[in-house]
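re: ur question from earlier - yeah i can do the single chain one, its not a big deal. heres the input i used so u can compare w yours
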Amino acid sequence: MKITLATKITIARILLIIPTIAAFIVGQIYAHGSVGYYIGNILAAVLFSICCSTDFVDGFIARKTGTVTDLGKLLDPLADKVVIVIMLFLVVAFGDGLSLGGLFAHNKIVIAVLSGLILSRELLISVFRSIAARKNCVLAADIFGKLKTVFLDVSVTSLMLAGMHVVIGWIGTVLFYIGVVLAVYSGVNYICKNRHVFAEHEAEPSASQEQAVANSEDCKNEEAL
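and the output i got, formated as tokens:
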């Protein structure tokens, strides 16, 4: 199986999450405010931003060159989910700066719960798309889904740097909450707009059923006579 340029870019995006994770963990290991802390966190945020910002590149190249493949269709959405989910888990695990200067001590718990909600939403949409694929249904695009992705990408990047300044933490938190609202709304809207996926074709009546209907009609005619 030949791997196209677009698919190679997608695979590179997935692999880039490894140094992103490593840089973020190393930054958290160093003492807060140290040079290593800043270098690790900033490097992780830059790598994460590259992963997210190149999301459109592989899809654009695949459409432009006419090399859209089933492997690409599988890996592209997977790359997006893996990057966001893993970094959210790490952000919550370390919880650096999530208390927003002590003004919102439970923000870490809220973000953890909402992260689970986002993951559940993505799993639901993935199952929905698999059902649509089996039925050869064409699904309409959703602008709210794209907005959700933008807000989550920017918010997670900010939350990765939340420990550097309380303002960054607030920006990341607010954008994340907006991203969650968009995630829920876009998910519900996506399924409702494409609810034809759940439509079942009416079964053709069997010969015995047709004969039963005919006999019933004959009886009604005899009674009428």
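Residues 1-93 form one domain. not sure if urs matches, ping me
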